[in-house]
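Hey all, quick one. A colleague (J.T.) asked me to put the KG4 job into the tracker so the inputs and the structure tokens live in one place instead of scattered across chat threads. No bug as far as I know, just bookkeeping. Sequence used:
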Amino acid sequence: MRILSIETSCDETAIAILECESNEDAAKDTSTSTTFKVLSHTLISQIEIHREYGGVFPAVAKREHAKNLVPILGAALEEAELLREDTQSVPEDLRARIGEVLSRESDMAESFIQFITENNRPIIDAIAVTYGPGLAPALWVGVNFAQALALAWNVPLVPVNHMEGHFLVGLARTTESIDNKTVLTIDAPQTPILGLLISGGHTQLMLMNEWLSYQLLGETRDDAVGEAFDKVARMMGLPYPGGPEISKLAAKCREDEKSLEGTSEKLFSLPRPMIDTPDYNFSFSGLKTAVLYALRDIQKTRPEESAPLDTLEKEQLAREFEDAVTEVLIVKTVKALKETQAQTLVLGGGVSANPHIQKSFTKILSDKLPAVDFRVPPTGLTGDNGVMIGIAGFYRAQRKEFVDPGTLVADGNLSLSKVA
Ligand code: KG4
Ligand code: ZN
């Protein structure tokens, strides 16, 4: 099955085309192995644009997606060698239906019609699109674009939950490369599978009880982990997105400490919020406030108030913050592994790229739960991308979860779990 997938839930506009192959029953049978040949993996990040605002602005994200989707579709088809220029006639009634679906996307409608009249319909078996959760205005552009494309090409449309994309791509391993194209393989493990989904919008412990059926064990009560990284970075005067910046400073601090053989004094001490609560919930806004107070305290000692932190202070603060977050994530996740008996742990979401978090999990699992199979997304697929939506779309398409174009509704608060 060849799937074209579309992702616009936040600040990345992404389209991927995957050639998916497995036994007939991959949707049910957890022992099946499925391969996903990545024919194209295109992405335009809006990070540079949002950096000016220090975060993502929904209206700006929507405008950028609308501008990027048609060009990126062309690029994705070209990369997959599926782009064939040829004049096509679009019947009046079809043109009218497409116009209806794109009535709210006036910026995009004209270039969309132009594209489909100038290019042949490629051989694609299904179109997958993220319909939630995320920023509603951003989601809508992708949903409407996907609906218009499904109409234009007369291809089935399959809605995808963004969080399921993060979960499933975490299970994938890069197995080989064919004709310069990456091949990912998912040998669906035995359930239950525990997922720790950590991104800019979410922090969830999600249990896959049966293949593709989820139960939310706990989540953040306030800020998501990535959001906390971003906000703390902002307070420290670091650019958006703050996660990778803090991670680099913290790594430098650990390196320096090694060379000083632990003789340096610890300048900051932050709380580990909710680490001892008997549930699986998290809270990171208090941690962020603790950083604010720590910054204030240190500045009070300065002759000139609001003097910026020096490099050593920044490194130490970043390290203490990263340690606090990691410890809380580990304690709750290990508890959930023990209680659920899950033998596979998967990390997903942008924050799962964090090397310290990855290393700390590897270490604790080998010490305490060596039988647990620990998986992280393939490099480059931790943050939002089209490949993860194509993977989830494939499994959902196998279950024939198609919707009629024109009826799909974006849902910013969409949940993955039935037992919310
Ligand atoms: O999954 P993602 O790309 O978008 C959402 O769906 O939210 O996650 C983005 C988040 C941002 O908050 C970013 O700061 C964080 O992931 N992030 C990291 C790292 N790389 C990205 N956080 C910590 N360490 C990293 N290395
Ligand atoms: Zn995401």
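Adding what we noticed when we looked at it: The mean pLDDT is 93. The longest helix spans residues 311-340.
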